[in-house]
Amino acid sequence: MTMTAPRGSQKGHETAPAPAATTSGLTELREMFTRNLRTSGIYIALVAIVALFALLTNGASLSPGNITNIVLQYSYILILAIGMVIVIIAGHIDLSVGSVVALTGAISAVVVISYGMPWWVGVAAALATGVAIGAWQGFWVAYIGIPAFIVTLAGMLLFRGLTLVVLDNVSLSPFPSEYGMIASGFLNGLLGGYGYDVFTLLIFALAVIGYAVSQYRARQSRLRYNQTVPPFGLFIAKIVVVGLAVMAFAWQLATARGMPIVLILLAVLIMAYSIIMQRSVFGRQIYAIGGNLSAAALSGVKVKAVNFWIFVNMGLLSAVAGIVFSSRTNGAQPGAGNMFELDAIAAAFIGGAAVSGGVGRVVGAVAGGLIMAVMSNGMQLMGIDQSVQSVVKGLVLLLAVAFDIYNKRRVGSN
Question: What are the start and end residues of every segment in region (Disordered) (predicted)?
Answer without folding.
Answer: 1-20
